[in-house]
Design a protein that fits this description.
The protein has 178 residues and is an alpha+beta fold. The protein contains two helices and seven strands. A hairpin with an 8-residue loop joins strand 5 and strand 6. It is rod-shaped.
Length: 178
């Protein structure tokens, strides 16, 4: 009889070990699923930021083209140090203040311009989470081409690290024919 009890006890221990192994593998699979979902979210954000950056570049190029055709002061310049401006994606212009001068920022002033350069004011629009700004490299009036960076970032994060659901600011280099 002792042998029968020993076998019953071993079967119970084996069942407990099997349950523990299943539990551990479930935790591992859940961690893999979470990591995959974070990667998907990051890729979606980066895709959106890329699209907004390319659109911003087209806006900047269109503003330069309109200035060339009309002769109006539509494009900021001359620039003696790197300065950032807000492209208006709706009106194909740069945002100006009440004195009709271009709103300008330094690239280090992210906390200030991230609220001024919002892509959309509609709270339902995903673009409401992002800002877009164009930072122009120094140039003089005689220059034919201007280079600069379109910067798209998330308003709710610092834009310095890609971790979790956060992504770095997306920087898109562009050259504009003046």
């Amino acid at each position: 009889m002792k042998r029968i009890n020993t076998y019953k006890a071993l079967g119970f221990v084996e069942a407990l070990i099997a349950i523990m192994v299943v539990g551990v593998s479930s935790v591992v699979l859940m961690q893999i699923a979470v990591s995959t979902m974070q990667g998907v979210i990051q890729n979606e954000k980066i895709d959106s930021m890329t699209q907004y950056a390319v659109e911003g570049s087209e806006v900047v190029k269109e503003v330069a083209k309109k200035e060339k055709e009309s002769g109006d002061d539509l494009f900021p310049g001359p620039i003696v140090e790197e300065t950032c401006y807000i492209p208006d994606r709706i009106n194909y212009s740069f945002v100006k203040d009440s004195q009709d001068t271009f709103l300008s920022y330094q690239q280090a002033e992210r906390d200030i311009y991230k609220e001024s350069a919002i892509l959309s004011t509609d709270p339902e629009d995903m673009a409401n989470d992002y800002f877009l700004i164009f930072c122009i490299q120094p140039y003089s009036l005689g220059d034919t081409y201007v280079s600069g960076n379109i910067i798209v970032g998330e308003r709710n994060y610092d834009g310095n690290i890609t971790k979790g659901n956060n992504v770095k600011d997306y920087i898109y280099f562009t050259v504009v024919n003046l």
